[in-house]
From TrEMBL:
The lineage of its organism: Eukaryota, Metazoa, Chordata, Craniata, Vertebrata. It comes from Balaenoptera musculus (Blue whale). InterPro entries: Znf_C2H2_sf, Znf_C2H2_type. Its main location: nucleus. Residues 4-31, 60-87, 88-115, 116-143, 144-171, 172-199, 200-227, 228-255, 256-283 form the C2H2-type domain. One of its GO terms (cellular component) is nucleus. It comes from the Eukaryota. Keywords: DNA-binding, Metal-binding, Nucleus, Repeat, Transcription, Transcription regulation, Zinc, Zinc-finger. This is LOW QUALITY PROTEIN: zinc finger protein 345-like. One of its GO terms (molecular function) is DNA-binding transcription factor activity, RNA polymerase II-specific.
Amino acid sequence: MRPYECEECRKSLNSGPDFIQHQIILTREKYNKFKESQKAFTNASRFFLNQNIHTSEKSFKGNYCVREFNNGTALIRHQRIHTVEKLYECNECGKAFSTSSIFRVHQRIHTGEKPNECKECGKAFHHSSYLSQHQRIHTGEKPYECKYCVRAFSNVSAFIRHQRIYTGEKPNKCKGCGRACSTVSILTAHQRIHSGEKPYVCKECGKAFRQSSELTQHQRIHTAEKPYRCKECGRVFCCSSELSRHKLIHADEKLYECKECGKTLSRDSVLTQHQKIHTGEKGWECNECGKVLNCVIYLTWHQ
């Protein structure tokens, strides 16, 4: 069966380009016979669109669904949804696309072109949808609400990732060990455990990391940046995990009590280290000089 059938003359054609050429021929014939409009048209495509304004007809119908279109070009674009025909291939990366508009947007990744600029802050994007998503930062709009909790999100991808906390969905599986991850980015970071890849390198000292967040946290050693501030006492920290541990100091309830002296501590790991004072145990040995210390932090400082 030939997938492209002309509704005008019932002629069937084998491919999209042949169908387009056939429609051009018909359009030219209609143009020559056309007397309804007194407008002058510079080409057959503008003429044909104008004729549809007069007739309000949608004469182009595909074989895959019930949708109808008022010009052959629109039908061809739509049919590619069904046929997965991808005529536009990127010379840079080889990726192919079904429409020229999507193809042009993709090319901006390689050219660096970002024509969609935010009027509020000047940040630019290569696609208008990314600009719309960004503008919600300024407007505060969060249209995607979680049905399980009170959280709302400005973009759909963050919303989907959040939902997986409750659904437990982990659709991204590691081929190396079978571990499932909730997002592609988590899977990518996990796979570097197997490959040993550490693409994020510190320009100051050359140390490499698997994740960009690890590099960002590490760089604060060099910059001395401490963006996380405790609201209770004003103390600042370089990472959120350190702030979370610190906040336990201000908590009313201290969960871990030493049976020897009655001292209460905020974490079980701190209690374990504290108890070595009473037992005399020194469990952390330096590989360089053999000195033994009773706290891993002291060992780190010593080394």
